[in-house]
Structure formats: C-alpha cells, structure tokens
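Please go through the sequence line and token line underneath and see whether the fold suits the sequence. See right below:
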Amino acid sequence: MAQYDVSFSHYFDMEPSFNPAAVGKQSKLNITAAYALDMVGYENNPRTLYAAADIPFYWARSYHGAGVQFMSDQLGLFTHQRLAVQYAYRRKLAGGNLGVGVQAGMLSEKFEGSKLDVEDPNDSVFAKTDVNGNGLDLGVGAYYDHGTWYAGISVLHLNAATVRLGTTNELKIDPTFYLTAGYNIQFRNPFLTMKLSGLMRTDGTAYRGDITSRLVYTNQERMMYGGLSYSPTNSVTFLLGGTFHGFVVGYSYELYTSAIQPGNGSHELFVGYQMDINLVKKGKNKHQSVRIL
C-alpha cells in the first residue's frame, strides 16, 4: 500500500516538510521550492510541487521559529493539497539546540470523476463527477542539532483526518511517523565535507527509508555537491547541485530497483534561497543570499 505523503530526494534541505520543529533552526530567512516528476513515461504519473518559507525570531526572552508551506500532489485523477503554518520553540540544551514544534493546516482533496473512463457506467465504486473535500491536518515534532550531527522525530496527520469526497466517498489519512538524523565529516582539506543523512517514515502499514551521502565542496560563497541516496527495496538516487547566482539549485534522478525500466525513473528539481536577517537585536536588518548546507 502506498503512503499518503510524498518522498523528496532533497529531504535534507526540506526538513520542515516533515518536521515542524525544524523551522527557524538557522538565523536566516529560508525559502525552498521543489518539483518532482515521478515515473516518467507512464500515463497520469505523479507530479508534486512544494514551496515553503521559515524564519527565526526572538520574543519574550526566548527564541522561536515560524514557517508556512504549500504542497500540491497530483496522481492520476486525484489531487492532494496541503497548506500549513508551523511554529517551533527553541532553546539551548546540552551544548546544542533543541526545537519543539507544531503545525496546523488544511488538506484539500479532489477527484476528477468526470474524466474517468470505466467499462461499466453503472459501477458505483467510482464517482462519475468531480468531487472534493477538506479536512484539518495537525502535526508535531522535535529536532536537536549539536555541531556536526542532528536528529529529529515527528508525526504528521496526527489527528487522522477523514476527508469526505461527495456524499458516498471518503479518504482516511493515517498518522505518519518520521525519524531523521545526519552527521557531517570534515576532511583535512578544508573545502571538502562528507554529509551523511537518513530519513525513515511509516504510517503503520508501509514504510520507506532513505540513506544519503553527499560530498560537498565549499569555497567562500561557492558550493557544489554530488551524492547518492539508497532506499532499500525502492530505488537508488543520484544527486547533483550547487550555487547559481545566489541560489542553491539541486537536481536528482531516482532509479527504481523494481521492474520499472531505467528510463522511467523520477526527476526532481530543488531551489533554495537564504537571507541573513536579524530579528533578535535592534537595528536594521542586514541581508544577503547564502548557501544552504
């Protein structure tokens, strides 16, 4: 059984997409976007758009983070959309930084039954007209980073919403649990770093794990990386990216290890932009684009 949530190859730069506690973890305005085209060559293949922004701020003698995100996932005649706001409380702990976050949003589900082609027009299993519905969506998470390593845990769709589609159909969305971690290895060459990361998720029925290794070259404001990601029983993914006119641009190709042909893999494009912004101390904000690591 397929999981409700979408898998992104660039999850390491899109942590708020699955953990609200990750918003505001850097002292910068963080803007990210991604577009994934899955199973190329198949009719009605999945297409996913994601856009988000988060920012840190200081209020009532405490550090906080806030974010907003939008996701639209089209799979055949189904369209799943999510618009959510996120908040995280942040504090120093044991030499690192701990964030505890929550998110609340709305799910929008649509089924274009008017485009359905079935052999039996009297089959009542499928709606023959366009139907849609909405539902409340909640999530929680915790995130801890300490120098060269980090770890996080979160639950999305915590309230297990059931979205009504018309008068006779409904879509139940099970809670999905996430576990992520990462570690950076600095080589003797100061320009090279190996970044290791992993993400595991399950909705209690199906699961997916991703293990990623990227070699990152940095020199002042310039950055380039290449890497591989492996998802057991699913796929091998090739990653390539770097800075371009102040933006971080990343591309990945996911090659499925199943019976799907090599040319029918998945393409993903990631774009990130960061702006230095000081909401802690008084005075004018200073900003410039910086790299996402």
Notes: Residues 277 and 286 are 6 Å apart (CA to CA). Residues 282-293 have pLDDT under 50 and may be disordered. The chain has one domain: 11-290.
